[in-house]
């Protein structure tokens, strides 16, 4: 059976030489559990305490595993068939985003600027008022003023 719980504490632990993340969760009034977190291979992520943990039962008496998190305040990045990844500051605001769109476009953005790789438009790097655009044909445009053909 799966459950949602409020996150009380997140800690990295070493159990018999295996590094893992444990999440202390309150799943009901005064019912606190501390299961290990299981995410996809290659994903190293820790939630904010304002998120909710999603757990599932595993073999054993009252044993659970954390299999995901819910950030109900911010779930509007991707559309069907797309993937949006983002990091947040301590207040929960997005500070960096990677967005894989269903048309093959990849966008990366933070407070410094934005990089867009589009199958139809090429590569665009923007930083404030400056930009560099490399078209699919290979021409390079800098700030819309200097263009160099391949």
Task: Describe what this molecule looks like in 3D.
The chain folds into 2 domains: 3-70, OB fold (Dihydrolipoamide Acetyltransferase, E2P), CATH 2.40.50; 83-142. It is built from no helices and 14 strands. Strand 8 and strand 9 (106-110) form a beta hairpin. It has 150 residues and is mainly beta. The N and C termini lie far apart (59 Å). The chain has strands at 3-15, 18-28, 31-33, 36-37, 52-58, 63-70, 83-88, 94-100, 106-110, 114-118, 122-127, 130-134, 140-142, 146-148.
Short note summarizing the structure:
The protein is an all-beta fold and 150 residues long.
Oligomeric composition of the shown chains: single chain
Poorly predicted sequence stretches spanning 5 or more consecutive residues: none
Largest sheet: 8 strands, antiparallel
| N-C termini distance | 59 Å
Number of strands: 14
Number of domains: 2
Shape: elongated
Calculate Rg over CA atoms. Answer: 21 Å
Secondary-structure content class: mainly beta
Number of helices: 0
State the name of the first-level CATH class of the largest domain: Mainly Beta
| Secondary-structure element pattern, one letter each | EEEEEEEEEEEEEE
Strand content: over 45%
CATH domain topology of the largest domain: OB fold (Dihydrolipoamide Acetyltransferase, E2P)
Q: Output mean pLDDT.
A: 90
Main-sheet strand order equals 7-8-9-10-11-12-13-14
């Amino acid at each position: 059976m799966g459950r949602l719980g409020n996150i009380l504490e997140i800690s990295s632990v070493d159990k018999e030489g295996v590094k893992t993340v444990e999440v202390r969760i309150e799943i009901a009034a005064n019912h606190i559990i501390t299961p290990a977190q299981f995410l996809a291979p290659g994903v190293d992520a820790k939630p904010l305490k304002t998120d909710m943990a999603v757990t599932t039962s595993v073999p054993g008496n009252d044993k659970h595993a954390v299999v995901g998190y819910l950030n109900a305040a911010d779930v509007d990045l991707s559309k069907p068939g797309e993937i949006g990844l983002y990091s947040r500051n301590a207040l929960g605001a997005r500070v960096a985003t990677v967005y894989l769109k269903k048309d093959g476009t990849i966008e990366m953005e933070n407070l410094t600027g934005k990089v867009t790789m589009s199958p139809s438009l090429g590569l665009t790097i923007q930083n404030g008022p400056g930009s560099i655009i490399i078209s699919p044909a290979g021409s390079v445009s800098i700030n819309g003023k200097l263009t160099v053909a391949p």
